[in-house]
Amino acid sequence: MAFVNAGPGNRCLLLMQLEGDGPFEVTTVIGHSIRRRSFTPEPIGAAFGLALDPDVDFAGDYGFAQRFSQTVLVQVRNGEAVDETRLDVFDLAQMGSLYERIVERVVKPDTQRQAPGHSHTLHPWFPVLLIGAHKAELYTRALVGDVVHKRQNLADPGWLTRVGLYLELMTALGIVEAVKDDLGDLLTPEERAAYESWDDLTINVDGWKDVWALRKIAQPLSSRNLLAKRKATLEFLHVHHEDLKHAIALAGPNSTNAQETWHRVFRDAERAVLCKTPDAFPELKSLPAELRRVVLWHRRGHLGLKRALRVPGPLPRLLGDQDGLFASACNQYRASMNHVADWAREQGLMDHAGDESVPRQVSLLEAHMNQPTRVALLQARDGYDPARPLEVGEDLPPDYTPPLGDVAAALAGTPVFSLLKPEELDALARTARPLTIGPAERIIVQGQEGDSLFVVVEGTVEVFLRRDDGTEVALGTRPQGSVLGEMSLLTGAPRSATVRALDGALVYEVGRQQYEPVLAARPELRVALERAMEERLRTQDEALSASSRSRRRSALRARKARP
């Protein structure tokens, strides 16, 4: 995949295996537009690279009728030899534009009809649209970092882009249809014709009409309007996440890294809530500090509510002992995302390890409120400076690249790699790929093809196996220094178990191309890996046998307990 309008440094690099001296020619085809030019391959290790400028080589029509994207055919010619590939190209400048249109042509005019002279920031729809727009900015920033600058902070940029694009289309078009009778058509005639030619989008008009019914600005503006905004936001998210199910279906199945993508989506939503809450809820400024703290941070059943309830005015009594804005946003958004993930799992569109796709330990807000030391870990996982604390109303910290230690020393500290000579370690270290893994994120997924192994440099990982009936059997944990994935590397078989980090981990990935020459030169290293594999298989068989015995005993006890 690639982007147009992605800012400075935007380029698309294609790797090739070439034979012959050329001449070399590249042709790009977008619709009826054909571009052809010569090029000089860039040597990259044993392969060669073709650097394309998306804003030039992929220029074309990325408007609404094309859903802000194009499929580009790239054909490379080397003398008489020809090969080709296809790329999905998205216009980042267009994505999010439909939400902006809704603010300008729905929220602002409706505010003036209800409360002339007041800011549209009072409208019950404003918080979710503002926070949603900022969340989209965070996704865009992360996508550019991964696709353009190769930062590798996202598990699957392509799938995330497709889901986000389809979600924007269905949500925005649902709103367009819901408000059409009151406000007229928000689409141009050309856009309307394109929309009516699509038969794959599921538009929930009735759901969005219910949300439109919650647009009333409540009086007094400083108290009851907060609750009106909250009610509208929750209903908006409910319908929005029904659209999300259909967006996932259109984006296609992802059984290998959808869960890790889900973690990032959830944390970026939390970041957007923290950053934009003061702008989304200007009513908070008029509240006393103690009451404002309760509205934002209170946890149901916690102490500290009584002082706030003594503050004059109707809001304390209306609030009662319920979660504040941040806790309720975290809990309800997490529950909604887990509901969508469970639905997608039943449909064969997503998969996840554990009982929940988004467990509590991946939440920034949960960490901030209950375990602040985890905040730095989660920030670093997503490519943000871990030294900056989370603050309400503050923008994100700058991008962050974790400092790499002595990779060779880390590899030498593992039992298997300790057999290598310093020069062999250095050769592996130069090509090993460092991966920062977040809490509950999977490193290896059972059944997935794999031709690399992983060395755990920091942290602890857990291993489990999924039976044919869907139940999971824990196979224990692996500490720092463990080598993972050697079975697939040695045998070529799919991954035999799933491995995920407990509280985050730093691992180094070593690919087959880097490792095979070392194995060929050092037979004793292959023997050591084979022994480790045999021990791993023996432990796995024992765990499965113990699990089967436990299940049989449970079934027998259940039968004996029957009258």
TrEMBL record:
InterPro entries: cNMP-bd_CS, cNMP-bd_dom, cNMP-bd_dom_sf, Env_Response_Regulators, RmlC-like_jellyroll. Residues 416-536 form the Cyclic nucleotide-binding domain. GO terms for molecular function: DNA-binding transcription factor activity. Coiled coil: none annotated. Residues 549-563 have a biased composition (Basic residues). It comes from the Bacteria. This is Cyclic nucleotide-binding domain-containing protein. It comes from Solirubrobacter phytolaccae. The lineage of its organism: Bacteria, Bacillati, Actinomycetota, Thermoleophilia, Solirubrobacterales.
